[in-house]
Design goal:
The protein has about 200 residues and is α/β, with parallel strands linked by helices. The protein has six helices and six strands. The N and C termini lie far apart (about 95 Å).
């Protein structure tokens, strides 16, 4: 093989090698670019989901973490139903409901839904599990009040919002001689018993 022919073959081989190297380089660059785009997309999507999460959902997460860390529960006190025989107004039932909420709010490790949020459920036909999901609570306190003569009876039931099972139920009967004292007495009794029952259920 003469010199010029050998040189031409070497040059041709080098040229083909250069073309292949260039081709493979472009393929590798495209693959690396695609991988980088996917990784960047995943990071951006994760950040968007984290920052664009609805405020209400974030609040539920924060509350859930707080409740779990504190070993506590959450409760909603539904407005007491007034089953009195006459057509008197339900101001006493509403007052006792508010007093119970106020007393329960002072219990350690218990998150209590505000009266404003529970009032729309007065005389509702929704089930306890439905209310529990809507208010995001573990426990529901519901009950009724009956006034007759100079006495009033309040019946309260603590229910597991997830299972619709009774955790505890009790009745309280007082005279109407001193309405404010009676109201505070029943509220404190209910809040005390609910706190104990809620702690036992956890």
């Amino acid at each position: 093989m003469d010199g010029p022919t050998s040189i031409r073959k070497v040059k041709k081989t080098a040229k083909l090698r250069g073309v292949w190297i260039s081709f493979i380089g472009r393929i590798v660059a495209q693959i690396l670019g695609a991988v980088a785009s996917i990784v960047l997309g995943v990071i951006v999507l994760h950040e968007y989901q984290r920052t664009a999460q609805p405020v209400a959902a974030k609040a539920r997460i924060v509350r859930a973490v707080h409740d779990t860390a504190a070993g506590g529960s959450s409760i909603a006190v539904l407005p007491l139903a007034d089953f009195s025989a006459d057509d008197r107004d339900s101001s006493l039932a509403d007052a006792i409901t508010e007093a119970v909420i106020t007393d329960l709010a002072q219990a350690e490790g218990l998150r209590v839904i505000s009266r404003t949020s529970t009032m729309p459920y007065k005389a509702t036909q929704k089930t306890v599990p439905e209310i529990g999901r809507e208010l995001d609570v573990d426990l529901i306190l519901e009950g009724s009040i009956v006034q007759s003569g100079g006495r009033v009876r309040v019946t309260a039931q603590l229910i597991d919002a997830a299972t619709d099972e009774h955790v505890w139920a009790r009745s309280y009967e007082r005279t109407l001689d001193n309405v404010l004292a009676m109201q505070a007495d029943i509220a404190k009794a209910i809040s005390r018993d609910v706190s104990v029952a809620g702690a036992a259920a956890r």
